[in-house]
Known about the structure:
By secondary structure, the chain is of the alpha/beta class.
Amino acid sequence: PKYDTQELRQQDGRHHLHPFTDTKDLGDNSRIITQADGIYIYDSEGNRILDAMAGLWCVNLGYGRQELVDAARQQMQELPYYNNFFKTAHPPAIKLARKLTELAPEHINHVFFTGSGSESNDTVVRMVRRYWQLKGQPDKTVIIGRRNGYHGSTVAGASLGGMAPMHEQGGPMLADIEHIAQPYWFGEGREMDPQEFGLLAARSLEQKIKEVGVDRVAAFIAEPVQGAGGVIIPPESYWPEIQRICDHYGILLIADEVICGFGRVGQWFGSQHFNIKPDLMPIAKGLSSGYLPIGGVLVGDRVADLLIEQGGEFYHGFTYSGHPACAAVALRNLELLEEEGIIDRVRETTGPYFAKQWASLASHPLVGEARSLGLLGALELVADKDTMARFEPGIGGQCRDNCFKTGIVMRSVGEIMVVSPPLVITEAEIDQLVALARQSLDLTARQLGI
Length: 450
Ligand code: PLP
C-alpha cells in the first residue's frame, strides 16, 4: 500500500492539533483520507465513502475536476503570487471581481477579497463600523447576530456567531455584538404555526434594536439558512419581516453566503432564493469549490459608494487577498457552474428529487423531521416520535461514526444529522445517499435496541 495507515495515525495523534476535535479522545484513530473523485472520498485503506458533506459544505463541483487543476497550474506558472495592495492588481483578481459582480444582485458592484469565510466576516465588522463613522454616526457599532449562528473561528467570527462553546472558550468576545433568536421551528416553536413562529423569531430583531437603541445598532448578520447550526431552514414568513425591520430602522443587512452561495439552494446566492437585498455578503467555500482557499465580501452600492467617495485609504487587507492562483481557480469554478447549468439543475431537478427522497427518511423510527432546501438536508433524531423527546446527548456523534462505517459522510450537530452533497450529484447518486443514510440510521437504532 502507498500509505502506512497505523504510522500516519500515530503521528497524527502525537503532533497534529485538529480543528474542532478532542485530540485526547482522537488517540490514534483518525480517518486518513487520501483520494477523491466525483462525490466520493477514499481512505488510506481503500474504502470508498460517499461525501454527503462536500468536504465542509464547499466542494460544489465535486472532486477531481481537471479544469480546476489546470487553472491553478497555469496561473502558478505565470504568476504564482502577487498582491493587490498599493494600487497594484493582477488579471485573475480583476476578472474574478468582474464575474462575481455580474452574478451578484444588481445593487452589488464591488468585492473585497479575503482568504476565508472567517476573514470575510472580520472584514465585514470593520467595514460596517467604518461605514457608520463616515455617515457621522460613530456610535452605531453594535452588530446583531443570532443564537447558534456560525460566522467563523477568528475572534470576530466567533463573536458574531452564536455558538455557546465558542463564547465560553478563549476569553472575552468582541464588544458590541448582540444575539437574537434563531428561526428554529422544530426545536423551539413546534407548538406554534410555523409562519407565526417565523414572524415571532424575526420580530426579536426589532425588540433587540429597541433594547439596544437604534442610534447604537449598525447591522444585522445572518446566514440565509443557518448551516453549521443544524440546517435551520426559516419559515417563509421570516426573511421578508427581517428585511422590513432592517429597512425601517435603516440598519445594514449582512447575509453570510459562505454556505448558501454558489448554488447550494438552487440560486447563485441564498439571498436570491429568499428575495432579500443585503448590503454585504461574505462569501468563501463554494467560490472555489474548496480547491484553493479564497473568500471575499460582496459590497452593495450603499456601502461601497460611501467608502470609495469619502473613506480614503481603508487600512485593511490580507497578504492573500485575491491570491492569483486561488482567484484563477475560483473564476474557472464559476464558469463551469454556469456552463454546465449546475445551479439550474439543483433548482429544477436534483433539488426537488433530493427533497422527495430525503423526506422518505421521516418514516424512520429515529427521525422526528426530515427537512431540506436545494441540496441542504437535515434529520432530527428523536427518542420518541409521538412526543418528539430528544435522546441523551451523544447519539448524533454515534450516528455520525456509524455513517463512516456504512460508507457515507454525514455531519452531526448535536442530535441533528446534516448533509450538503456536491452539487454535481446525480439522481442515482441521491438514491444511494438516501439508502446509505437509512442504513446508518438502522445501525444506530439496532445499537440502541430500537
Ligand atoms: N460563515 C459561515 C456561514 C460558515 O459556515 C463558515 C464555515 O463553516 C464560515 C463563515 C467560516 O469560514 P472559514 O472556515 O472559511 O473561515
